[in-house]
TrEMBL record:
Keyword Cell membrane: yes
Any GO MF annotation of the entry: transmembrane transporter activity
Membrane topology: Multi-pass membrane protein
Organism of derivation: Brevibacillus laterosporus
Domain of life: Bacteria
Intracellular or extracellular location(s): Cell membrane
Gene Ontology CC annotation, any one: plasma membrane
Name under which the protein is recorded: ABC transporter permease
Length: 309
């Protein structure tokens, strides 16, 4: 596998953590959370600032995850207690986080090139590459990332099948019904948004350490990338169960990164990537409907032919 495709694989696994967070809000909670762009950058800003200040990268990443959860919870409080429209609440939090991220970093960009990060620690583990007949399918770092993402997927699957997770799912599916059982939908919504943005901030912290810097603008467009991963994965893999849906999100994130890497490889400008993302989402959303319509049309034609016979 080429260096570009290996990089796309590694990035796809790290962005899959963010996509799982987007899946929680948009599919489980049925909530249009736009906090994602801000909380992703918040994770990167917090981890980069702490690491350059001498904090161990593991602790810095955990703190970044925690502040991401606080950002999500704040959006939840705005929409449940403040009675602000969910879409607007996410936008307000996202706007506020831009200034907060600047305050945290003290400048727009914090380099990590000479610092010890989780990525440098992962490389120091020296896990051998997975190679078949001279072709490297997974680098040692990618294997480590894969194991971490699969463990996170397993924990999330287990949580969503627990009593608390079922309350969370019911809040998105039928809030009136779950309230009749005495469950506070405000509480489950705040918890779900906190968990979602914790995952998003965790992804931001990992990406910042992977690319070697934290930037105040690194979260721009993350919500679209997350949605693209979710939708592409659902089209390719399906979402008939929670375990299958979370696997679909991870595969969707990988496919998205491979498409972007291939587009750059054939000569498209990096400035065209937002257009590529929009086209991918449009195709993923419309293709199933088009195919379904074609199948119905062919079925009608087939029945008509049978009657004429």
């Amino acid at each position: 596998m080429s260096v570009a495709m290996m990089g796309a694989l590694e990035q796809g696994l790290l962005f899959a953590v963010m996509a799982l967070g987007v899946y929680l809000t948009f599919r489980i909670l049925n909530f249009p959370d736009l906090t994602v762009d801000g909380s992703f950058a918040l994770g990167g800003a917090m981890s980069a600032t702490l690491i350059t200040g001498g904090t161990h990268p593991v602790l810095a990443t955990l703190v970044a995850t925690g502040v991401g959860a606080l950002a999500g919870a704040f959006t939840g409080v705005l929409t449940t207690k403040g009675k602000i429209n969910g879409l607007l609440a996410g936008i307000l939090t996202m706007i506020a986080l831009y200034s907060i991220n600047l305050r945290i970093m003290g400048k727009s960009n914090v380099p990590l090139l000479r610092e010890t990060t989780l990525y440098s620690l992962a490389k120091d583990v020296s896990i051998p590459d997975f190679t078949v007949q001279g072709i490297t399918f997974f680098s040692g770092v990618a294997l480590l990332f894969l194991v971490g993402v699969l463990i996170l997927k397993g924990v999330l699957d287990y949580f969503l099948h627990s009593d608390l997770g079922l309350d969370l799912r019911a809040t998105g599916d039928n809030p009136t019904m779950i309230r009749s059982y005495g469950v506070s939908t405000d509480g489950t919504l705040i918890m779900g948004l906190a968990l979602s943005n914790a995952l998003v901030a965790l992804s931001g912290a990992l990406i910042a350490q992977y690319q070697g810097f934290g930037d105040v603008n690194m979260g721009i467009g993350m919500i679209i990338i997350g949605l693209a991963s979710v939708i592409i994965g659902e089209v390719v893999v399906g979402d008939k169960s929670i375990m299958r849906a979370t696997l679909a999100v991870i595969i969707g994130s990988l496919l998205y990164r491979f498409v972007i890497a291939y587009a750059l490889r054939i000569g498209l400008s990096p400035g065209d990537m937002k257009l590529m993302t929009a086209l991918l989402v449009i195709i993923a959303l419309t293709l199933p409907n088009v195919l379904r319509g074609m199948n119905k049309h062919l079925l009608v034609i087939g029945k008509g032919g049978n009657k004429s016979c």
